[in-house]
Every structure is written in structure tokens, then in C-alpha cells.
Amino acid sequence: MKTTISQAPNQKDQTVTIGAWLANKRSSGKIAFLQLRDGTGFMQGVVVKSDVSEETFELAKNMNQESSMYITGKIVEDTRSPFGYEMQVSVIELIHEATDYPITPKEHGTEFLMDHRHLWLRSKRQHAVMKIRNEIIRATYQFFNENGYIKIDPPILTGSSAEGTTELFHTKYFDEEAYLSQSGQLYMEAAAMAFGKVFSFGPTFRAEKSKTRRHLIEFWMIEPEMAFVDHDESLEIQEQYVTSIVQSVLKNCKLELNVLERDTTQLEKIQAPFPRISYDDAVKLLKEKGFTDIEWGEDFGAPHETSIAESFEKPVFITNYPTEIKAFYMKPYPDRSDVVLCADLIAPEGYGEIIGGSQRIDDLALMQERYEQHDLTGPAYKWYLELRQYGSVPHSGFGLGLERTVAWLSGVEHVRETIPFPRLLNRLYP
Ligand code: 4AD
Ligand code: MG
Q1: Beta strands in 97-169 (DSSP E)
Q2: What domains can be seen in the chain, in order of their start residue?
Q3: Which of 28, 123, 177, 289 is least buried, going by the fewest C-beta atoms within 10 A?
Q4: Strands (E), 279-407
């Protein structure tokens, strides 16, 4: 019977066949230990010379790393391995013999591994990170589906910019100028007026010359948008959503967190509600913590965010930033035009901003004023203004950066390991 490694626990004491690759191997004169992988997981295969044909034992002993095979044997419990099961191998049928696989069990430098990303993805660590990424995506669909949201897909090619014009990728759209989407938000606002509660999940592009452990040129964002929801209600949705993905990963990715040696003590404390601190108070806190030259009105950098996050056990919302340093569409704070109804959610343990969100301006005249201040002329923005003209309602939304969230939950240092094929400042290969 053909099965997979992930299904092996259900096949205890049965003889099965698995299509697999050889991840690693160790052998002596009488026994060979094969580290097998099949995409669904990793499992040890034990080949005992006296139990198999000479041909099978020779094959097991001499096979090269990453050779592919059909391997048949009995699944037995193995309490020493974290997976809990191994295969007592009876027959190996070689499919393809690999030669000189470049990524050997020894240590390799990051640039070398990034140049071999198409192969590096096979490694146990990368496998674990991608499984956690997948679980966050799964839990995201579950959360929004269970809470009455519908998924809407905004366009990737756009004529307008949501987050400022400096970081846009330009492209020709026949005779017109177009950009790759930085955020689906503006379109999601139109969708919220049509469907109430919506979310999107898709790639976004920032031509940002940043070379930090938190920045990708192409990254994936989850962007919910809700009609009749104010800023405070949006924060409650955000903390419930983040709690649900953290708890899903803890529950469904135990093996992967273990492979990554992720200390989960901090993650286990992540339950809504999350603390909130205003930008005003955050500036005071930073001054107390030794950032003496930070001035009100300046944006926070990574060291500021990390320092603020250290004062809290859970992710923290920094709310009501200065109007000057935020996007054109954010609604002013009541009775204060210098700050807006927005929040960034800062993850613990130095992983930085994972969510940016706000209540949107719903007043037509005020939006027109903002258009003038931000020089948003031309037909590309006409439709967005019309949303304020026909049955405008209070509405809010936010964007969660998938890769930063994967980095945080997996405990990996750099976002380049959280997406299958990262696009970085100096990397378009592979
Ligand atoms: O804060 P940002 O720029 O917000 C928006 O784009 C809003 N329009 C979202 C909305 O309200 N619908 O980006 C949102 C999140 C950030 O908090 C961060 O997690 C992630 O996207 N992000 C990046 N992740 C990786 N690399 C980059 N260059 C990123 N830029 C933003
Ligand atoms: Mg932001």
C-alpha cells in the first residue's frame, strides 16, 4: 500500500510503500539508517543487512543524498525520535540517483544557501517554516470565514498608490503608466461598501531600498476591511485574529516548532486583549528608556519599536500617530487634527510591526482636502472619492504582513527564510 510519512502513524505495524528522497544517511557494516523525506515529513528508515536482500543493503549503503526511491517496510513506533515512528525497511526501488547534491549536512553560508533556495527548501528547517506559514494562511481563512467575511481579490496592476508614491514599481500598461500594487486597501474599501466585511490575501510590492531583516520587496499581505466598524472595534478584531493564528500554530505545528527549537513560553501567553499605548505616551516611554533625542512627530525605527515591545509581554498597539507621518486616508482623531485614528501592532521579541491599520476618512469634503494636500490628481483616484459620495459610512481596516508574522512565530531571524522565493534588494534569483 502506498502512503506518506504524515500518514505513517495511522499505519502502525503495517507494511507500506512511500515515495521518498534520501535526506541523510549513516551506516555500518550491518545496519544503515536512512533519513527519509517525502514532502509531508521526515522519518528514519532502518535497513538491517540480515533482513534484506544483498542488493537492497548495498543500495541503502551507497545511495547518495537526495536520491529518490520507493521504499517499502513496516511502520513501527520509535519513542526516541520526535516524530515517534520509523520504518523497518524491506525493499528499496531506486528511482533516480542524485550526484553531488550541493547542500551537504555541513554548515553553509547564507549567500550560498540563498543561491540554492530551490534546493534549500527541501531541508528540515525550511520545511518547518513553510508548514508554519501554511498554518497561518489556513487559520486566516478559517477565522475570517467563521466571522462572516468574504474574500475579495483586489487587482495587482493598478493606476493608484495607497501608501505613497516613492516605493512604487512602475510598469507599462499598453499606453498607460501602471504600478504593481503596494496594498489592496483602496479596492478593499470599495469591496466593504459592497459586501460589508471582506478580506484579501495576496502579493504586494514595495520598491524600497531597505536591506533589513524585516523588509522584502515582494511580500504577502492579509487585508481585512469592515463597514460600520470604528477604530476601537477594529483593534478588537485584530487582537482576536492574531490570537487565533498564534493558538492555531501552537496547536497544529508542535513538530515544526520543535524542529526550529522555538521557545514557546512567550507565544503561549498570547491571548486577547493586547495592551495599547498612544504615540504620545510611546515618545515619553522612549525618552525614559534612554532615547533622549526622539522628538514628537518623528517616525519610530526598529530599535524604538523593539524597545517599546520589551515593556510588554504581548503584542502592543501603538495608536494615534501624527497625521504628518501616516497615509492620506486616515481619519483624524476627534478634536485633534495632529494625530489620526490608527495603530501599528508591534510583535514581541524584536519582530517589529506586523500590522498597520486605521479608521478611514468617510467625509467627502475632508477627503477632497487631503487629495489636494497629497497632490492626488488625475483620474486614477476618482473612483475612491466616489465611495465617499454614495452612502459613505464609518469603516476601518488593516494589513497583516504574512512574512513578519511567520518570522515571529517560527523564531527565525530574517524574513528571507519565511517566503519560498524571497525578492530582496539584490536578489531576483532563483
Ligand atoms: O503598514 P503598511 O504599509 O500598511 C498598508 O499597506 C495598509 N494599506 C494596510 C491596510 O490598512 N489595509 O503594511 C502593512 C504590513 C506591515 O505592518 C508589515 O507587517 C507588512 O505589511 N510590511 C512588510 N513586510 C515585509 N516587507 C516589507 N517591505 C513590508 N512593508 C510592510
Ligand atoms: Mg506600517
Answers
A1: 150-151, 157-158
A2: 2-96 (2.40.50.140), 117-417 (3.30.930.10)
A3: 28
A4: 316-319, 332-333, 336-340, 342-347, 352-359, 395-401
Cβ atoms of 398 and 223 closer than 8 Å: yes
Give Dmax over CA atoms of the chain in angstroms.
85
Q: How many H helices and E strands in the chain?
A: 13, 19
Ligand 2 centre from 306 Cα, in Å? 15
**What's the pLDDT score for residue 379?**
85
How many whole angstroms separate alpha carbon 400 and alpha carbon 248? 16
Quote the percentage of the chain above a pLDDT of 90.
96
Q: Write the burial class of residue 196 (CB in 10 Å: 0-12 exposed, 13-18 middle, 19+ buried).
A: middle
Atom of ligand 1 nearest to the CA of 344: 17
d(CA 49, CA 282): 67
* Residues in contact with ligand 1 (CB, 6 Å cut-off): 162-163, 183, 185, 206, 208, 215-216, 219, 221, 223, 353-357, 397-399, 401, 403-404, 415
Mean pLDDT of 386-390: 98
The amino acid present at 128, given as its one-letter code, is: A
Supply the pTM of this predicted model. Answer: 0.98
C-alpha cell at 35: 533519513
